[in-house]
Amino acid sequence: MRRLFPVTDVTDVTDETAAREWSLAELAAAYAYPEPGPEGREPWLRANMVSTLDGAAQHEGRSGPISCATDMRIFGTLRALADVVVVGAQTVRQEGYRPSRARAEFAAAREASGQGPAPVIAVVTAGLDLDFSLPLFTSPLVPTLLLTGAGAAPDRVAAAEKAGARVVTAGEGGAVDPARAVRALADLGHTRLLTEGGPRLLGQLVAAGVLDELCLTVSPMLTAGDAQRIAGGPSVTLPRRFTLKSMLEEDGFLFTRYQRS
Fold first, then answer.
1. Pairing of strands 166-169, 145-148
2. What 3-state DSSP class applies to 248?
3. With 70 as the cut, is the pLDDT of residue 133 above it?
4. Which among 119, 127, 174, 242 could bridge 82 via Cys, Cβ 3.0 to 4.6 Å?
5. CB burial class (10 A; 0-12, 13-18, 19+) of residue 102?
6. pTM
7. Which three-class secondary structure string do you get for 152-182?
8. How far apart, in whole angstroms, are the C-alpha atoms of residue 97 and residue 196?
9. Which of the 8 DSSP states describes residue 120?
């Protein structure tokens, strides 16, 4: 892996040692969350997505075919840095989400940061139309959260709670309000937020103006077809401007990090 941006005194080194595999500690430092301010740690929501050169976020409904081993190492590192992973219900069903796991490599750092052994999974779901017999609900290391609206069906809320999930109201009626969801998670002590989509959820977060950072892997692949982009749904009135903070490269994959301007 090579750092392409920001430019440093070693960026242009061509020696073979410059293109080595980064340690997990180095990746964690490269993707660290902002330091707390005078008033304490404010919620910071980052997204982690992958896209092909022609804009596809998936191939045949899954992101795995357009990813790579290093992308998955960064994926794991970003999870290890987060308090909570926010994901849409459709992605849970489609990608077969499982509970997050504790990783020995990050145990000391998480304890020093006041974090639990693994990030919480928080599922955004209006209708609670989920299979509560899945391991995500029956055997998580930390209880799974369900972010839903105040109008969620009582029988589905009861089924979720019986399965061990914690239901959090983050909207009126059947809808989840993204800004309210961020506040609700922060109120629970989860300020280092990570979302892995899918595209519909990311589009809602972008439209609501609550996304602080995008970690985007640009995959050197072309898929054609009609796959979704990384963000879907209604367009915003004006495009949101983000600033490039870092760019890493390995085997043609670009690992970029953008922050809200």
1. parallel
2. strand
3. yes
4. 119
5. middle
6. 0.93
7. CCHHHHHHHHHCCCEEEECCCCCCCCHHHHH
8. 11
9. E
